[in-house]
Amino acid sequence: MTALLENDILLIIGIVVLAWSGFKWKALTFSGAIGTFIVGIFIALGFQGYGLLLIGLFFVTSSYWSKYNRKKKENMEDMHEKGSRRDMVQVLANGGVPALIGMMAYLFPAEYWIYGFVVSIAVANSDTWASEIGTLSRKQPFSILRLEKVEPGTSGAISSLGTLAAIAGSALIGIASFSLWEEINAITVFWIIILGVVGCFIDTILGATVQSAYRCKECGKLVEKKVHCHQPTILVKGVSFVNNDVVNISSILLASILMIILSLFVR
Fold first, then answer.
1. In a 10 Å sphere around its CB, with 0-12 CB exposed, 13-18 middle and 19+ buried, how is residue 142 labelled?
2. Which site in 63, 193, 239, 266 is 20 to 30 Å from 114, CA atoms measured?
């Protein structure tokens, strides 16, 4: 197994298969598949097949939950800037930080990069599971800041089901990392799960504050799009250049840095 995960040719084949499969299953656009290949190469440089297995776990499970009960989520897709097929920007928003850490681990080998890398995947998985599963909750979510009920799919909204999904998504990555790296022990897994969920909540808070939201002049719906009902929308919240992709990469980066700093003091 170890030899397979450290074989350069097999790693490149694995990355190509992952990107092609994502495109074939309509989880990725063509540009998203290119982005997945680039992210995979950087991760393989730093963490070989171990890192690819972990981000592959995120990719497969998150794609599954994105497709799960798609019909019920169709109304919410109208609110979001992009559809369920992830393009290159979306791939880099979730995989950019893990790829950067992979490159840093390759250039400046150190144990703490492993912890930062695993937490970056834990945040991405936690946030995606929370979004995709939480929107299926039978109870109406509420704003994390104003504590008032909001429409499902609204940025900055939380629900009990979504919170449980966030914990489960982070726990899956933490437990999987325990089986992949001997440097990760039970205490580290605990902190990975905690910081994965913390990153997810950072994402939610940023979504409720600085992430842009627009009001459609035609139907009055609150959306993330600059054009809705074929008409320009009006910015009613946040900063115009801060969209969901900016929020994702910011929360992943912050939680990863926290984990790297924490790993210098806690083992």
1. middle
2. 63
